[in-house]
Amino acid sequence: YQGLAGRSTNEVLQLYAAHGQQMKFQRSSIVTQLHGAIKKRLKQDLKSLRSFALELSKDFQRQSKTCLYQVLAAVQGIQLQNEAMQMFQIKAFDLEQSLQEVTERYEKEKQKRKALHNSLIELRGNIRVHCRIRPLLPFDDAAGHSVSQDRQRNLSEKAAYAADDETVLVKCSRPGHASVNKTFQFERVYNDLESQDAVFADVAPLLTSLLDGYNVCIMAYGQTGSGKTYTMLGPQLEGNLAFAIEEESELGIIPRATQEVFRLISEKPPGSYWVEVSVVEVYNNEIFDLLAKDSYGKVLGVKRDVITTREGKSDVPLLTHETVENASEFLLLVKKGLQLRVTHPTLVHAHSSRSHLVVTLTITTVVFGDNFGTLWEDEQTSQKLNKEASCTFPQKIRDSKSTSSSRASSPVQLEATEKMKQVKTRLQLVDLAGSECVGMSGVTGAALRETSFINRSLSALADVLGAIAEQRAHVPYRNSKLTHLLQDSVGGDAKLLVMLCISPGQKYLTESMQSLGFGTRARQVQRGQVKKKTFSVLSKGK
């Protein structure tokens, strides 16, 4: 601006214009240079981008080929796997079929083996022994005993298991000693989940033998609280046994056996059979008739005695026999008798039975003339039986209310219209009192005396079985009223089934081992082939 001093306005304007032109030229030159640089840089970048794109395309092609090869290899692998899977499926199907065939053959062979075993048992006269393991129950803990919590936990653990349907596994463990497993074999073993239906399914075939002319005895043995009464009779409601229809799935062997017997009888010609029932208990080594009535018709337990007849059979003179026509009448009589059965609460069981219960069904089969052997085929015989036997004998039995003895209601004392044949078979259902450890049950006073008689009678039963097994000349039946009463069943010609009941808890290990030992010894008893009852001929002259 100092150079502009003294100059005219036009000169100044010209100078400004020239300066502007110069500045414009400079800017244009800079823009041109910048444009060239940018263009050059863009060309370089484009070239680099083209090179990168080419490399990327080549790499993509290489990776695509690699992936394609991998996909093809995977597809081929899947195809091979599918083929292998199909082969495996075919092999698995063949194996399943083979397994099914082997299983079916095994089941058939198992059934054959059981049939042969049963035949061998019958030929030898062996005693069938079934074992039932009850579930753990709330009273199985160690409450009431001064033991530590760890000891209580050990006592509540299971020690007995059903390894299979023929084997009992017992884990014997003592403090400071290694656990030892012991096994016991029986004809049938029921685990703690098997129902009353499963138990009776194996009992039912014996009842067919009853109508075929064989005596049958089913006996429950075990320690107190092991489930004998539940197995034989069913659940107890407030001390009373329930035979309600709605509880049919819980019914025990005794009510089920009676229903089955009457079902089998219903399939036979009417009037060819009639049934009598007696209920006795062996309490403190005395026999009591639980169906005996006083002069007012009230049922009360009357003491009876057991004798040996000339034929060597046991008999209870004056024992009450009631004739029944269906299972309901039978259950009513049994329920009346059970109301007189002695029970007493213990630390082990609130409704501990203090006596041995023996329920006997006597079935009399009658055939007129010489029709035996063609009884079921000859329709005229069936009609004759229907007309004469059903109208004459059962009615006379009903009319004669004398139930004082088995002979009093026998057809021998009834007037027969013609010569006839008859045979009597017996079904004895026995609920033994439980063996007891006094220290475990905590009984005192009269209950302690009951325990002494119970244990002595069970020991006498074991002695009888031991004598029979060893084939001694003398069998001590008369050492106890129980063994004397059951003489014909234990050592005679009855098909005998012992239902062994055990508790699974470690707390009862000693008692369970004793029961399992009893069952094992019972299986070894050979009594000779069981004999079928023959018909005796009765005539009007008799």
Key structural traits:
542 residues; 11-stranded mixed sheet; alpha+beta
What can be said about this structure in brief?
45% of the residues lie in helices and 19% in strands. The chain is of the alpha+beta class. The model is unreliable at 142-148 and 371-418 (pLDDT under 50).
Can you give a write-up of this model?
- It is a single chain.
- The protein is an alpha+beta fold and 542 residues long.
- 45% of the residues lie in helices and 19% in strands.
- It has 12 helices and 20 strands.
- The strands form 5 sheets. Strands 1, 5, 6, 9, 10, 11, 14, 17, 18, 19 and 20 form an 11-stranded mixed beta sheet that branches. The chain has a 3-stranded antiparallel beta sheet with strand order 2-3-4, covered by helices on one side.
- α3 packs across α5 (253-266).
- It starts with 8 loop residues before the first helix and ends with a strand.
- Residues 142-148 and 371-418 have low confidence and may be disordered.
Strand and helix layout:
Elements: H1 9-124, E1 128-133, H2 149-156, E2 160-164, E3 167-172, E4 180-185, E5 188-190, H3 196-211, E6 215-222, H4 228-232, E7 236-237, E8 240-241, H5 253-266, E9 273-283, E10 286-289, E11 302-304, E12 307-308, E13 314-315, E14 322-324, H6 327-338, E15 343-344, E16 352-353, E17 356-368, H7 379-399, E18 420-431, H8 438-441, H9 446-469, H10 481-485, H11 487-490, E19 494-502, H12 509-523, E20 536-538
Parallel strand pairs: 1-5, 1-19, 6-18, 6-19
Antiparallel strand pairs: 2-3, 3-4, 7-8, 9-10, 9-14, 9-17, 10-11, 12-13, 15-16, 17-18, 18-20
Helix pairs in contact: 3-5
